[in-house]
Design brief:
The protein is an alpha/beta fold. The protein is about 60% helix and about 10% strand. The strands form two sheets. It has a six-stranded mixed beta sheet, sandwiched between helices. Strands 2-1-4-5 form a four-stranded antiparallel beta sheet, covered by helices on one side. The longest helix has about 55 residues, at about 90-145. It is elongated, with a radius of gyration of 34 Å. Bound molecules: adenosine-5'-triphosphate (ATP) and magnesium ion.
Length: about 450
């Protein structure tokens, strides 16, 4: 739509503006008085057209929104089709879709109405204007100021202007529609870039990580991370536990600077993370997130995703072996070249996780951020993933949001988060002896898994 408005504006506008200019030249030559009169009339028409344009744009914007709604809803329903089927949501979804469809149809009708009305009103006004011009010209002709020949010439020039001007009104409408479309596009383009003013580049940090009185909130009101101070030595493991929604994922997402903290300081090897270039900071951090994100490509290219240098086949195979990916890949029709489907749909949850672990292994960064998946896995994959994780955590500073007992028990330090605050910290032993929130969580979450 935006492309359409730009091309039609350029081709039509250039040609039509030239025609109009030439016509004005002829008119001025024959009768300046009449030309002045036309020059007063046309701006009035222009203002009216402008006003119509504004109304038009308002409707246009609303229609853009409802077209977006239709696409979004359709996509959501298709993606969530299993839920729709399992929970018998056909009727509900059909109603929702009919609702937005109907809204979209009505808005479209309105748009067409406004457009036709716009063109009609402009033409009526123009018709009246034309009649007026002819009337005044005939008066001048009677007075002998304007000869019939001049009058015809003037009139032809003006008629020549009519068509281009009418087109320019239409161009205006197309343009308005394009602008409404561009608005939502620009909203995304106008998002601020990530702040990247740091200059420190370190190929490989040691991995001493420190949070110092860190506050963070997504919106300005409620703190999601509230005065968190904790440090973790290079190569050690920090486990973060806490209820759902206590801010665990948020806390670890602050380290690669996915979000900027409100106050306090996070440092790696005593250098504030905001002093690093984003590239260098993120090069030093491997991330295995709660929900694994895979692209609709082969297992291989998902493993090597984002690696700067083309990765050699030997490393790739080593990693595929270590992360127990070969375990399932060897049964797939194309092995490691098998396409994983949209969002990795063709793989099981455990298989997706193993690919994520493999990806992190291959990146081989000194700091590992691990948001363990909560989903229960069968004991076989669980053991495989645990082994792969142990290998991954070896010799790396690890911040792990732990749902597995074995991970928590082995951690060098555990912090318990509650509503963004650290309420307890220490080793597994310390905290069990404390008999506080951790001991409670431990009894609730972990004992039965054991
Ligand atoms: N992108 C976001 N924008 C706004 N609020 C968010 C965002 N992500 C999380 N939150 C809010 O921040 C709080 C902490 O969320 P977080 O994801 O850190 O919890 P969590 O401890 O990781 O929970 P879980 O164990 O369920 O993964 C929640 O109240 C959540 O609603
Ligand atoms: Mg989380």
């Amino acid at each position: 739509m935006i492309a359409e408005s730009v091309t039609s504006v350029v081709t039509i506008a250039v040609r039509d503006v030239m025609t109009v200019l030439a016509a004005i030249g002829v008119m001025l030559f024959h009768s300046p008085t009449l030309t002045i009169f036309v020059a007063i009339l046309f701006p009035i028409i222009a203002v009216l057209v402008q006003l119509l344009g504004i109304a038009f744009r308002r409707y246009s914007e609303r229609i853009q929104d409802s077209v977006g709604e239709v696409t979004q809803l359709t996509e959501e329903i298709i993606r969530g089709n299993t839920v729709v089927k399992a929970f018998n949501g056909y009727k509900y979804e059909r109603n929702r879709l009919t609702g937005v469809d109907e809204k979209n149809r009505k808005q479209n009708l309105k748009l067409i109405r406004v457009r036709s009305l716009g063109v009609a009103i402009t033409q009526v006004i123009f018709g009246f204007g034309l009649a007026l011009v002819i009337y005044i010209a005939s008066l001048q002709s009677i007075q002998g100021v304007l000869s019939p020949g001049q009058f015809i010439s003037f009139f032809s020039a003006m008629m020549l202007m009519l068509q281009p001007l009418r087109r320019i009104t239409n161009v205006n409408a197309t343009l308005q529609r394009g602008v409404a479309g561009a608005d939502s596009l620009f909203m995304i383009l106008d998002q601020k870039d990530e702040k990247d003013i740091g200059t420190t580049k370190i190929k490989r940090v040691n991995g001493n990580v420190k949070f110092d009185s860190v506050d963070f909130s997504y919106d300005k009101d409620n703190l999601v991370i509230d005065d968190v101070s904790v440090s973790i030595g290079a190569g050690k493991v920090l486990a973060i536990v806490g209820h759902s929604g206590s801010g665990k994922s948020t806390l670890v997402n602050l380290l690669p600077r996915f979000y900027e903290i409100n106050s306090g300081k996070i440092s790696i090897d005593d250098i504030s993370i905001s002093d690093f270039t984003l590239e260098s900071l993120r090069e030093n951090i491997s991330l295995v997130s709660q929900d694994v994100i895979l692209f609709n490509e082969s297992i291989k290219s998902n493993l090597t995703y984002g690696q700067l240098k083309p990765c050699n086949e030997k490393d790739l195979l080593k990693v595929a072996e270590a992360a127990f990916i070969n375990d399932f890949a060897k049964d797939l029709p194309n092995g490691l070249d098998t396409i994983v489907g949209d969002r990795g749909m063709l793989l099981s949850g455990g298989q997706r996780q193993r690919i994520a672990i493999g990806r992190a292994l291959l990146k081989n960064a000194p700091i590992l951020v691990l948001d363990e998946a909560t989903s229960a896995l069968d004991t076989q994959s669980e053991r495989h993933i645990q082994d792969a994780l142990n290998l991954l955590m070896k010799d790396r500073t690890t911040l792990v949001i732990a749902h597995r007992l074995s991970t928590v028990e082995k951690a060098d330090k555990i912090i318990v988060l509650d509503a963004g605050k650290i309420v307890e910290q220490g080793t597994h032993k310390d905290l069990i002896n404390n008999d506080g929130q951790y001991a409670n969580l431990y009894r609730m979450q972990f004992s039965e898994i054991q």
